[in-house]
Amino acid sequence: MLDALVEFADNDIEKDPVQQSLEALMLTIGNVQYSQLQEAASSNTDAREFISRIRLKMQRCAHHQYLYKHDRTNLAAELFDGVNSTAECPPIGLAYEHFQNVWWKVTRDNGAFVRGKEVGTDILLAPPITLEDITWALKTTSKDMAKGSDQLPLWKLKKSKTHELWAAMNVWLGLRRVPASLKLNRTKLLPKGTVQLDNIKNWHPITIASILIRLFNNILAKRMSKVSQTDARQKGSKPLNGVGQNIAILHHLIRHARTHKRDLYLCLLDVSKAFDSVPHDSAIRALMRKGAPNEFIKLVENQYMRAFTSLSYADKSSLLIKLKRGVKQDDPISSILFNLVLDELFELLGDRFGYSLEGVGKASAMAWC
After folding, report:
1. What are 174's strand-pairing partners?
2. What is the pTM of this model?
């Protein structure tokens, strides 16, 4: 790790300090799968080379669906630890073709927008990641956190030297990029219900990154939450009961309209594959609109540059799929990026439309994801 820090400080172009930092960290952790992961990353070959077999367990579809709505962290942990649904997954070839079409589709977001005044450099980038940040990220991460394609478990990181994580993550932060091999993900399919599961559209893809990336992004997300504020009408992925609040507001509006014999028009919109269909251009645009520093945008953009995933079944896995759009589930910054993209809609709506309440204003839209 010292060598990586020296290369980082000296900026020796013959060596890559980002790669050195990861190699030193993996050496310390003693991850035996690392060499296989590196070989697969460099050759871009079949994901079978680095995704291990998953233990078979049985779990009811209804339980999975409940966890998908209420606790995706534990859901991902169950799935990637080997829990298998009673439903048979679609043929892997069919699933590969379908999701390749979903993630390979590039959507350009070229609409005009006003770039916000740059803010947050002193919060997002200037302070180095501290040992306290590392300790906080490790403590606030669930012990059942699912493993990524590198098969690195959380307990190994907790037993490793915190200084090694500190050094590696500061190299990544300083150079505004992460190791290429940590951009390899794996994806498990979750049934949406219990009927028509022969239709590939009735399956949720859960894409999980390396736990190293999620710990790193947990620290970045904490910084982003101090800078990037979203509209109060967005209740998703915030430390509050967003569903309960939205239901209460909706109940009050309906009751008010009935009491005062007023017209009330409602439209419920369920966005299909919301996280999977977010254009990367839109995420970058959202950061620009909120005034994120260019160097921070570069760091976020790098994580989605040449990122791949592989569909993971109980006894096999697919070829790699390049992720040209979408944000990853269970990644701490994904929900923030999604909310920032959606926030532009709320700015456009403003209070020009909606149901008027005297002394309160207009209720035009509510969101939860």
Report:
1. none
2. 0.79
